[in-house]
Amino acid sequence: MTRRLSLLFTWLWLVELGWFGLSSNVLGPNTTRDQRRDIKLMYRLGYTQNAIGLGLQLSEDQVRYAISHDETPTKRSGRPSKLNQDQLEELEAFVTASKANRRMPYSKIPAALGWNVGEYCIRHALRKLGYNRCVAKLRLDWALEHRDWTLAQWATILWSDETWVSPGIHKRIWVIRKPGEELNPTCIVERLRKKGGWMFWGCFSGLADKGPSLFWEKEWGSIKQISYCERIWPPYSPDLNPIENVWNWMKDWIQENYPQETMGYDRLRVAVQEAWNAVPVEFLYNLLAIMPARCEAVIAANGLHTKY
Asked: Which residues, if any, are the signal sequence (predicted)?
């Protein structure tokens, strides 16, 4: 140690005398613990960062980093798990007990087990056990299970969802222009920065056509207390819910019949209700008729999303 420091002092002394013309931006390898310790020692003895970098053939950034950080970086301990080993085993047994449990959202598992933990705790624990959400696998399994359903079976499902509806244009608009005409007034589509709208909920089935439609203004949690149907659907699968096509049809209808960008809330509610009433029943039946094709598309995509 003493001999190494002596050689280092000699080197730095010769550098300061100008005997060596090393560049201050010489890049060396990542600094070691011994190098960082030497840098701190030289800095406390009054040597400049430039002189230390020249003497050790390190860049100024490496010297500056070593001065401002610990010689030996501390290892992150991480947040301790909220679940003990017995609870981890209970969680694994619960998840693997049934198909419904495997598809249960993380947010509902604590209540099912009577635990006072959050969704992220469950996700972290399951990942620690080697489990992950496999949406593609769920979609593929669902499509394989329903690929042979008849139209009569699809008609028994109550399809429901909600959507945000606002007045005016809802699709991307294409214009014909040359390069450089981006700001030409005839190529610009005026849009309001923040348009008003309503959250609209509706449902339909092949047995009762269109069901009730509701505007949700407050108490969003109340919709979860109403059980309209018993169903298990794969998550993140709008292409497997034909009511998404109904929303597009309604928004096209509103865009065509109420093209103005501004509309009062009362008038917008009337427009949305008119659009819902205008959805053709034949259109709904056609959506149900192509459900087997949707399933086959999911199977062909190995569970990934499709054009629908």
From this structure: 1-23
C-alpha distances out from residue 49 to 9, 15, 22, Å: 14, 13, 14
What are the distances in angstroms from CA 189 to CA 65, 169, 171, 262, 282? Answer: 51, 10, 12, 14, 34
Query: Using CA of residue 74, residue 78, residue 79, residue 84, what is the dihedral sign?
Result: negative
* pLDDT tens digits along 162-180: 888 877 676 667 778 788 8
**What's the DSSP call for residue 292?**
H
What average pLDDT does the segment 197-218 reach? 74
- Cα 11 from Cα 6, distance rounded (Å): 9
Single-letter code of the amino acid located at 102 = R
Both structure tokens of 42: 């030289």
Give me the pLDDT at residue 290, please.
Answer: 94
